[in-house]
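Complex 587.
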Amino acid sequence: MPIRVLSEQVASQIAAGEVVERPSSVVKELVENSIDAGARDIRVEARAGGKRFIRVTDDGLGVAAAEAELAFRRHSTSKLITADDLARITTLGFRGEALASIAAVSRLTFVTRTADAPTATLLRLEGGQVVARQESGRPPGTAVTVEDLFFNVPARRKFLRTDRTEKRHIDAWLTRYAMAYPALRFTLLHDGQSTFQSPGNDRLRDVLIAVHGLEIGAALLEIVPPDPRPASGIQVTGFTGPPSLHRANRGYITIFVNGRWVQDGRLTYAIIQAYHTLLPTKRYPLGVVMVQLPPEDVDVNVHPAKSEVRFRDGDAVFRAVQKAVRHTLLERSPVPVAAHPPTSWPVSPSRWKEDHHERLSQLRLRPAGGPLRLEAERADAQSTGGDTAPPAGKLPPLRVVGQLGTTYIVAEGPAGMYLLDQHAAHERVLFEQLLAERQRAAVASQALLEPQPVELTAEAASLIREHLEPLTNLGFQVEPFGGATILVRALPAIIAETTPRQVLEDVAAALEMGDAPLESAVEEAVARQVCKQAAVKAGQVLAQAEMEELVRALEQCTSPRTCPHGRPTMIHLSVEQLAREFGRVGG
Ligand code: ADP
Ligand code: MG
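Predicted structure with magnesium ion bound:
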């Protein structure tokens, strides 16, 4: 084939592909432009997950009438003049690509007005070509409307997911910016319904409450830097969850570097590491961590979408983040003894219920004659959320004193008295035993008696098809079977009991959320099994030897202080507290 120079149109569509992957990329770029333009109030409207319609309206500086067309020229930007400027970039945009790229693959309407202009300028573009220009009325600021995204790139359009998924991606970007810029007010509407609003009062906690709800928002701990003026120039602020708040995946850790959301596995790990020994196994913290450092110490120009950054001294940033979070946990974490009972354990029954293990929370424990079995029952368990925070770390050796109310085990340790919830404790023991088994059996695969075709939604099926290799590594034998049908030949042994359909649906849901494939599906299944097997119930009389065995087993656990759903297994009354309660202190 002869070599030819691509037409401007084709070249710009290719370039657009790097910036505009899906509707949420449009939202991200337009919101960044609004922030760069000094807007205080940013409103985002989407229809059909943004596939049909996206509008971002701001009250920022606007673009002068004479420059409106220029804004859509590739590599035209008001934010950067020389390559040197790149080293100290403080705006979110700088490549001058976004508007040109978005316009190339949509029908776009740009209405903008500077504060001193008598009227607004309206520009309409189709596939990157200006098709109309006129004067218009609107207050100072800018409104960009993007319709029929990828109308001229059918290949791209095909890859868009359901409205629901695209909507979720938009939500994710908008909440990220709301967190990064608490002084700005963000409003989000989907299909005419307001779904999110941040107050814009410059209080990050209020944004977090808007994002996560009151309970979680209020429980998050504000990061206290170990050193308010670090010599490294690296400032770490934000909020991080108390150890009692955890999730099945890393998706609840959000990191910003100089106001820019970044995806950085290493910094995520720094945060997880800070919780070392504080969380149950395979559980991850929540956190919103803002890193500020001199612009010349970070390269943001790694990727067109700018969600990756490169640090001049990555180790220093890692240490700063890890130290700040760890320091916060040690300073602010609920005190390790029962000193302030009601407030220090922020996991209420209603919260852990809504968590990933909703099913488990519906288990009710009732006395049953006969040997150790747990009965599952669809009843609401307004269960025993302990009121006091468990101390961190491993358990000391405990001496069993006796049983209380056929529900709790009273034990004595070097640091005082321990009250154990016998059911929660046993769940923990079984859970860790199962996890260990699962690790041994990691990729053991169990063939179905007969290969089974499972028909999924088109979206779920394509997710499975895209991940055949990792799934095989995990013990799956599945293959495309025409249309949205997947043929299941074998499943990982640990979840072989679940129906193939259920497993594939769970897996697809996890993949869609960007979770580590299977993590939550496996965990869910493990937890279900724990449930089935969990022996000791509340209300069950235990012999001294049984209690001792349970306590010994709990001592062996990695995370003995919480049950697999994050509830405490024990309440600790320290010697000091007992002395204080009895007025023996300083007495
Ligand atoms: P970049 O943000 O990298 O400069 P864009 O293509 O996103 O590139 O935008 C090009 C230019 O258009 C910006 O530099 C800015 O001058 C102008 N612009 C875009 N959106 C807005 C807005 N909402 N308010 C004011 N000016 C804007
Ligand atoms: Mg931009």
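The radius of gyration is 28 Å.
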